[in-house]
Every structure is written in structure tokens, then in C-alpha cells.
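Notebook entry, structure prediction.
Reason for the run: the old model in the group folder had no record of what sequence produced it. Starting over properly, with the input documented here first.
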Amino acid sequence: MWDAIGDVDEIGLWGWLHEVQSEGPSMVTGSILHGVVVPPLPYRLRLHIAFVSCVRPSRVDAMVSGDLVGDAHLRLKREGSDTEVTATWTLEMMQPAMRFAARVMPGVMRWGHDRVVDATADALGKHLRDATHDRLS
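New structure, fully documented this time:
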């Protein structure tokens, strides 16, 4: 699981993250990931994710800057042959137009957010299934 979520070359295939660049090795304390989030709504968000603490294979803490600012946390817990993944974040939109849209159309903004989260989970699941199939073949 750790290798799959840290594979920068594959992250861009998840559909919502574009222009992915990494400063330093992926999923390592001190490295930085740059990208552009393109949700199914007419806006783009430029992000910089600084990995504050990465403890393989169980924990990632990061600071997000750019069009969103705040912190993000990822916890991975092995359960037999499965891994339970918990992602939490507290982010503030910095673009004035986005802040306005969130106030007047919160349902639409949540829908766009939820589509990005769902697409990520679906793409990661497919990536993991394909990797497992390839390893077993």
C-alpha cells in the first residue's frame, strides 16, 4: 500500500491530479509534491504538499499550501491481508472566487470535492488490484 500511494508516476493517472512534480523521493520526510487538482467543476487548484513526517508503513503528516492551505494526515493500519486507510485534512480555500462559491453553493462544492475523493479511492483500488494481479501472474 505504501509503495502504491507513493508512486508519483502513477498518481497522475488517478485522473484529478495533473502536472505532478516531486522534490526529493516520494513519501519521505522533507520531500515536496507539486500538482494541480482538476475536479469536475470549472476550476483548478495548485497545491504544494510538504511531507512533514513520514513513518513507513503507517503514517504521513503533511502541510498543504497553494490554493488550499492546511494540514493533511494519512494513517495506514494492517488488518490481516488488508490495509485500513484513514485520510483526514483541514484545508482552507485561498482563492476569493472559491471562497465565495463555497459560501453560496456549498452543495456543489462538496459534490466536486466528493468526486475527487471517490475518483482517488477508485483509482487507487484499481491500481492495487492490477499490481496484485501482475504479481500473481
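Summary: Helices lie at 2-5, 8-11, 96-104, 106-136.
The old model has been moved to the deprecated folder.
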